[in-house]
Amino acid sequence: MKLIRDKKKTDSPTIDSVLNSVEEPGSSFGLTHYKPASIAAIRSKSWKILIVDDEPEVHAVTKLSVSDLVFEGKKVEFLSALSAEQARSIFNEHPDIAVALVDVVMETEDAGLRLVEYIRKELGNQQVRLIIRTGQPGIAPERYVIDHYDIDDYKDKTELTVQRLYTALRTTLKIYRDMVVINHNRQGLEKILAAAPNLYKVQPMEQFLEGILTQIMSLCAAIGPDNLLVACLHKNKSPTFIQVGTGRFAHRENLLEEPVLHLCQAILQGQELPEKVGTLPAGTILLPLQLHEQTLGFIHLEKVIGTLTSEDNYLLQIMTAQCAAALRNLELYTNLEQANHQNEQKNLFLGTAAHDLRINLP
Predict the structure, then answer these.
(1) For residues 66 and 77, is the Cβ–Cβ distance under 8 A?
(2) pTM of the predicted model, to two decimals?
(3) Which of 77, 65, 68, 98 is nearest to 174 (CA)?
(4) Residue 286's beta-bridge partner residues?
(5) In angstroms, rounded to a whole number, what is the distance separating the alpha carbons of residues 235 and 265?
(6) Strands annotated E in the chain
(7) Are 30 and 306 a contacting pair, CB within 8 Å?
(8) Is 19 exposed, middle or buried (0-12, 13-18, 19+ CB in 10 A)?
(9) DSSP 8-state secondary structure symbol assigned to residue 32
(10) What SS3 class is residue 62?
């Protein structure tokens, strides 16, 4: 079980703080629609590298030279295309290709350069790293190609040693990984911004909490309706109860002795973690809804550790911070409405009493 809290709010001596994706279409041109590789591309078991060259020997030598390449604990998986036309089909089938080594002269003298144009402009794939590798630099001079085509590197086959190829591939894999993470975070932040208007509108508390669940499930693809609940709210540290739940938590009346409730209550009261915490399901994360060091409630996720990345956890922290602020805003509005109603009732009573006094005066 892991507890994720704001880094700046870890002054509790009894609770340890541990900080540990629906794809959207990307840019599309023409008739081709490309979806950017999701965060799953860097969770997969291997990195896909496409070799585009009309010489079979080049494919064999390349695979032999860098077959031992390992980046972030994952090996490389090679795909092969003997022509630019074949490479187009492979790109349509594999949107998560990380690096492509592209020859220039194949079925035509500029087949490789036309393939680059197709990948970047028609397919709209800005994530894959493209390395031009040519044996005839006189046909496609390096400076001209770098200036006029969206590539990441240019290599002359006659000068490309095994070590230089290894370095080029490892460097571009790192850039590809970073681009996928940046795109994932951008999509997550867009979803958080899009959710803000719904979070801050006036609505019943249960509807508000159901909205939180919906937004979190859309934020991280690894979170589904079977491993999520909201455990709140508490009033003056009274017993915590499940307000809204999904999956096995949908029937809240049967969850009065749920171990997570004891954990939440212990956190609120600053107690040592109870023994029953050990009975919580594996892979549990507890997200406090905190505002100005005050805990308003909790979001509880089950069976998610190992499936969420550090980027997912970062986005979850931003989302829970927004949810906490919106929750406090809703509570203040509700309290104001109740106070106004009480004042109206008081004024009505006083008005009635004053009227009765005037009638009874001699």
Answers:
(1) no
(2) 0.60
(3) 98
(4) 3, 300
(5) 11
(6) 2-3, 46-52, 70-71, 74-81, 97-102, 129-134, 153-156, 228-231, 242-245, 285-291, 294-301
(7) no
(8) middle
(9) B
(10) helix
pLDDT 10s digits, 65-105:
999 999 988 999 999 999 999 999 999 999 899 999 999 99
Q: At which residue do the structure tokens 């690096």 appear?
A: 99
pLDDT digits 0-9 by tens, 131-160: 999 988 888 899 999 999 999 999 999 888
Total Cβ atoms within 10 A of residue 258? 23
Ordered domains of the chain (ranges, CATH): 2-20+201-344 (3.30.450.40), 39-160 (3.40.50.2300)
Give, rounded to a whole angstrom, the gap between the first and last alpha carbons of the chain. 76
Question: pLDDT of 282-336, one tens digit each?
Answer: 677 778 888 887 778 788 887 776 667 777 777 888 888 888 888 888 777 777 8
For residue 9, give the DSSP letter.
Answer: -
CA 14 from centroid of its chain's CA atoms: 30
Q: Which amino acid is at 256?
A: L
Question: Residue type for 335, please?
Answer: N
